[in-house]
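ugh ok fine here u go
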Amino acid sequence: MIPISGFIDLNMPMKLTGRFPLCCWVRCVRWVAVSMVVVTSVFFPQQIIIAGTLSMENSSSDKDRQYRFAQALFKEGRFNRAAAEFERFASFFPEDPRVSDALYKAGEAYFKADQYQEAAIVCKTVIEKDPYAPSTAKIYLLLCWCQARLSDFDQALVTLHNLLSIHQKPAVQDEARYLGAWIFIETAQWPKARAWLQAITPQNRERYHVEALTTELSTTDMIPSKHPRLAGFFAVLPGAGHLYTGRYQDALVSFLLNTLTIWASYEAFDDDQPALGGLLGVVALNFYAGNIYSAVNSAHKFNRRATEAFTDRLRHRFPVRLTLGPVDKGGLLMMSIDF
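structure:
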């Protein structure tokens, strides 16, 4: 028979294990386990502390190992893999103080891998968390670089304005102004480029070669150009508009096509063939209108090529590269300029 105890429900089915129910054995095991924990904590507290410390050290070691691995990939030029590892570090160890730097390095790695959209996404993620943190200055600058490479110049200028309104350090302000000047150079807005350069503080003007670059920008009036309206006016005589813009082969083709179609239409009417003459007249009219449109368009192309040639000359004389330099206790995205 099963002994009756106040701790056992008579209605609960029980399996005998020797002379005691299974539930009694389970309770005994639990009490033994609790007793061992209590005795260990009382008589061996130092061992418990050491075990916890080892666990923390292992966690710290994992952080360092992950961060060093991402850095090694970055140095080797494996930028896509490095970006993924930096993002993984930020995801696995969100409380680590290096998270902001890791995300910045991820963005820089994407930038160096020419994945500007991904780099911009990483930068926006960091900025959204704390847009006013001192360490976000370099993130704003990197984001501006990405937007400029994506030809989103308007948004790049908005990013720079936000940076200028948040971070008041002269070094940060001058970096932003110099980058803004280059954005205006890329978009051929010469007066605005000069204005942003002149806003750079005196102590950094030599570093950014402000005087030399301003002198170059003062010569923009000498960039050769063609007036599109004048090209269209000259194109009243087929081929003359293309001659004005220096497209001599196009001028010859335009002159011949228009001359032949107009002459063919005239001959058809002269031979009393009005239907054929009308058809050829429509063709001649299309060629004539195309000649004027093409002349105007060639003037725009001439101006773009001349502007790009001037801008390329500035880029070669004042190369701008992405680097990282210290500012106080944080980091700053800097543009290294060779003169």
